[in-house]
Amino acid sequence: MSKDFFTTIEEIRQKDARYKTDAYEFVMQALGHTQKKLKRKGHVTGKELLAGMREHGLELYGPMTKTVFSHWGIYTTHDFGQVVFNMVNVGLLGKTDDDTVEDFRDVYDFDEALDVFQVKKR
């Protein structure tokens, strides 16, 4: 991540301090992870990105994923949508005319989706 990226994130956080800088950095990493998995360089949908975030989070943090997300201020999929659209609003991410923050609302429940033991059973 470039210095400009972190400077821009700090500007976002001055207006909306709900989410830590790490949450924004994670979104970028998870976007790359999702694009690679989908073999796509461009746009991914909110649901695709959330699936990639879940998978990438579990790969990085295992059973601590929900705790890490909570530490960043992320408690629901809609929180990730807020982070994404904060980034869209300053030009760090793009969107289509059909994309909205509501695409991220209630996509999955963190208790179920981030429970490593439940995930392994699937």
Keywords, separated by commas or semicolons:
mainly alpha; single chain; 63% helix; 122 residues
Write up what this structure looks like.
There is one protein chain. The model has no long low-confidence stretch (mean pLDDT 92). Helix 2 packs across helix 3 (46-61). 25% of the residues are buried. The chain is mainly α. The protein is built from seven helices and no strands. Helix content is 63%, strand content 0%. It has one domain (3-11, 21-121).
Q: Given the structure, what is the number of helices?
A: 7
Number of domains: 1
Element order, helices and strands? Answer: HHHHHHH
Gap between N and C termini:
34 Å
The averaged pLDDT comes out at 92
Unreliable residue runs: none
Question: What best-fitting shape do the alpha-carbon axes yield?
Answer: globular
Largest sheet: none
Radius of gyration: 14 Å
Number of strands: 0
* Content of β-strand: under 5%
Query: Based on helices, strands and strand pairing, what is the structural class?
Result: mainly alpha
